[in-house]
TrEMBL record, chain A:
<feature type="domain" description="Putative zinc-finger">
    <location>
        <begin position="9"/>
        <end position="38"/>
    </location>
</feature>
<feature type="transmembrane region" description="Helical">
    <location>
        <begin position="133"/>
        <end position="151"/>
    </location>
</feature>
<keyword id="KW-0812">Transmembrane</keyword>
<feature type="transmembrane region" description="Helical">
    <location>
        <begin position="266"/>
        <end position="285"/>
    </location>
</feature>
<feature type="transmembrane region" description="Helical">
    <location>
        <begin position="172"/>
        <end position="196"/>
    </location>
</feature>
<feature type="transmembrane region" description="Helical">
    <location>
        <begin position="227"/>
        <end position="246"/>
    </location>
</feature>
<keyword id="KW-0805">Transcription regulation</keyword>
<feature type="transmembrane region" description="Helical">
    <location>
        <begin position="202"/>
        <end position="220"/>
    </location>
</feature>
<feature type="transmembrane region" description="Helical">
    <location>
        <begin position="106"/>
        <end position="127"/>
    </location>
</feature>
<dbReference type="Pfam" id="PF13490">
    <property type="entry name" value="zf-HC2"/>
</dbReference>
<dbReference type="InterPro" id="IPR041916">
    <property type="entry name" value="Anti_sigma_zinc_sf"/>
</dbReference>
<keyword id="KW-1133">Transmembrane helix</keyword>
<keyword id="KW-0472">Membrane</keyword>
<keyword id="KW-0804">Transcription</keyword>
<protein>
    <submittedName>
        <fullName>Membrane protein</fullName>
    </submittedName>
</protein>
<dbReference type="InterPro" id="IPR027383">
    <property type="entry name" value="Znf_put"/>
</dbReference>
Length: 296, 273
């Protein structure tokens, strides 16, 4: 390609350092592309005092090498990984990571216990009013899941997480989605397996559950997640159970009445849908607050 | 809002632009003031943050890590105001943060822990496995990479924390008491790592071990009762100690006490806290 090659004189001067800088740079540029000249230059450099220094460096490096590089036995990590579940880069693992502490932790068994417990009570224990009780409790289950999903009190890795770009509303929403994806189908399915005994439809709690969850998040932008979930979950329980506990008549009958008025019919469900939309809008508006969501 | 002109004028022409700047920074925890009118700038190198317990070192690091919200003043990281939430993702991608205390999920191995943080830092997925192995090797835990974090000793967990902080090779690295829990040999190795990181990154290390500062830091910032008490280099702090004759066993320690005394004597009400 290029038929210019460095002269011996040029190389000697380069090797002993007497070549002007600009000439040395052009020679170096040439050496990057010309193997022949590179070999000749290194021969010329070795003829100078640099040879002794290079030899010394080489020896020192070799002396260090066995200690510094105990070859990270290539078979071992590979074998260790083969029987583990998917390596850390895989999609399955990233989905698992997105779940957050609630779904990975104690909340999941708690949801399973509520669902399975209700079904067992109704069919095994002969308890006829399991569905109203399940409907009364179900909306606070995702709210509790959200409370246990994000923030210094819920996530042991929060302090590290909070400094990463994933922190903030997006991570809160991802984890909330995981909580909803687990609790909505599970509790609705459990409800459907229960005798109806005049209680609202097993799916009637879905909109209230969603609305309460979104309201918790919207409120969290002002008072923090823990306080917000305590307010919304507490308000629901008070509204449903408060009158029931103080009512003179039968406990379950009163509960049925409460649930019918809160969950039954299009106007009630429409109200919950409107509340959910409103909360979502409020949440979007408070988005920046989620970057420092650590009010205790 | 607050004047920033005095900051703009500080770096001399040849000096690289500061990666981290604060102006009039104020942090309050309920009623107590953790930091008050703190003006600082940090460029590439290793910056030691010294000060008595409760001086505000951790408050400063947490604000710089964008974890805690300042109550007043301005903080600029990598050229962006951290209050600008549209740029916060960009700022955080350039951060590495080792908290004073941190937890982990019980089942995590070292590899999973560091990879999880890499995922949170939104690193491109295909580069993560190699970056994780590199970071873990840097802290000397390559042989424990598939061990469960909960089976490691305190000092090792500390090193896992350092690995997650450096996994994205951040231009700004914030380490809160990184040498706590390390044995002397590990501390020597860690200082070596610090010097290496400080060549290209802005490393801010809070510590109460003066040897760490003497051995690894290019600059020292002394914080006392929420204010900056002294800024200089380890040699200048040592020289201050020699000339003022503060108590201590190490030249830097003497400088530390001398600078603290001078600051407390000059700051009105500063000595009261």
């Amino acid at each position: 390609m290029n038929d210019w090659h460095a002269s011996d004189h040029l190389m000697t001067r380069y090797a002993d350092g007497s070549l002007p800088e600009s000439d040395a740079w052009s020679l170096e540029t040439h050496l990057e592309r010309c193997g022949g000249c590179a070999v000749r230059v290194s021969r010329a450099v070795r003829a100078t005092a640099a040879e002794a220094v290079l030899a010394e460096v080489r020896e020192a490096v070799l002396a260090e090498a066995p200690a510094a590089a105990p070859a990270p036995a290539p078979e071992r990590p590979a074998a260790a990984r083969a029987h583990r579940w998917p390596s850390t880069g895989s999609r399955a693992v990233r989905v698992l990571w997105a779940l957050g502490p609630a779904v990975r932790g104690a909340w999941l068994p708690a949801v399973l216990l509520v669902a399975v417990g209700a079904v067992a009570l109704a069919h095994g224990g002969g308890f006829a009013h399991a569905r109203p009780w399940l409907l009364a409790l179900a909306p606070v289950v995702p709210v509790a899941g959200v409370a246990l999903s994000y923030g210094p009190h819920a996530d042991p890795m929060h302090e590290i997480t909070a400094a990463t770009p994933a922190a903030g509303l997006r991570l809160v929403l991802t984890r909330t989605a995981a909580v909803l994806a687990v609790s909505l189908p599970l509790l609705t399915l459990a409800g459907a397996l229960l005798p109806s005994t005049g209680a609202p439809n097993a799916a009637a709690w879905l909109l209230p559950g969603l609305a309460l969850t979104l309201a918790s998040l919207a409120l969290a932008g002002y008072v923090g997640l823990r306080a917000a979930t305590a307010v919304t979950g507490g308000a629901w329980l008070c509204a449903v159970l408060g009158p029931v506990l103080t009512a003179p008549g039968g406990l379950t009958r009163e509960l049925g009445l409460r649930l019918s008025s809160y969950l039954g019919g299009a106007p009630a469900q429409g109200g919950w849908a409107a509340a959910a939309v409103l909360s979502a809008a409020l949440l979007a508006a408070r988005r920046p607050a989620f970057h420092f969501l650590e009010k205790s | 809002m607050s004047p920033v002109s005095h900051l703009a004028s500080r770096p001399s022409p040849g000096e690289p632009a500061a990666a981290v700047r604060t102006a009039g920074l104020r942090v309050r925890h309920r009623r107590t003031v953790a930091l008050d009118s703190v003006d600082l700038d940090f460029g590439p190198g290793v910056h030691g943050l010294l000060g008595p317990n409760g001086a505000g070192k951790t408050s400063l690091i947490r604000v710089l890590a964008t974890v805690a919200e300042p109550s007043g003043g301005r903080v600029e990281i990598l050229g962006h105001d951290i209050r600008d939430h549209r740029r916060r993702g960009e700022v955080r991608r350039g951060l590495g943060y080792l908290p004073q205390d941190f937890g982990y999920y019980p089942g995590f191995t070292v590899r999973e822990f560091v990879a999880y943080v890499a995922w949170l830092k939104e690193m491109p997925a295909d580069g993560v496995p190699a970056a994780v192995e590199r970071a873990v090797a840097r802290v000397g835990l390559a042989d424990r990479i598939d061990a469960k974090v909960r089976r490691l000793s305190g000092g090792m967990i500390r090193r896992v924390g350092i690995a997650q902080a450096v996994v994205n090779e951040p231009p700004v690295l914030l380490l809160d008491e990184p040498t706590a829990g390390l044995d002397p040999e590990q501390r020597v190795e860690f200082r070596e790592l610090l010097r290496e990181l400080g060549v290209s990154s802005t490393v801010i290390v809070s510590t109460h071990l003066v040897e760490d500062v003497a051995a690894a830091c290019t600059e020292v910032t002394l914080v006392d009762a929420g204010r900056v008490a002294y800024r200089g280099t380890p040699p200048s702090l040592a020289a201050l100690g020699e000339s003022e004759g503060g108590p201590g066993d190490h030249p830097i320690e003497r400088g530390y006490t001398a600078a603290l005394r001078a600051h407390r004597a000059s700051a009105p009400g500063g000595a009261l806290r």
